[in-house]
Amino acid sequence: MNRSVDLPKEFLPIINTMEGTDTDNKIKETLAIGLFVEKQVTLARAAELAGKPMTDFIELLRSKKIPWMEYTDEHLEDDRQVIQELSRDYDDE
């Protein structure tokens, strides 16, 4: 189902400065990035919405300095445990 959206004319000069040649694709990418950043969709879903393979979407995010992976408190705790275990192993030598 295709629906049209009326964009204010002030958007077009900004959209035209973005990389790429197709205005529709630029808008899809921008919306997908916004939905991802707002945590409304997963990385995989955002890539799909943007019409890009996930690796290309990750590169797009990187080019815009948008982190594509979160380092959670759970990751931090896992890393601390591994560091402690490695420290004990090293001390035992």
SSE inventory with pairings:
Elements: H1 11-17, H2 23-37, H3 43-50, H4 54-63, H5 73-92
Helix pairs in contact: 2-3, 3-4
Give a brief rundown of this model.
The chain is mainly alpha-helical.
Description:
- 65% of the residues lie in helices and 0% in strands.
- The chain is mainly alpha-helical and 93 residues long.
- The protein has one domain.
- It is elongated, with a radius of gyration of 20 Å.
- The termini are far apart.
Order of helices and strands: HHHHH
Number of domains: 1
Number of strands: 0
**Count, helices:** 5
* Average pLDDT metric: 88
Spans of at least 5 consecutive residues whose pLDDT stays below 50 are none
Strand content: under 5%
Task: State the separation between the terminal residues, measured CA to CA.
Answer: 65 Å
The backbone outline, from C-alpha atoms, is elongated
List keywords for this structure.
93 residues; mainly alpha; elongated
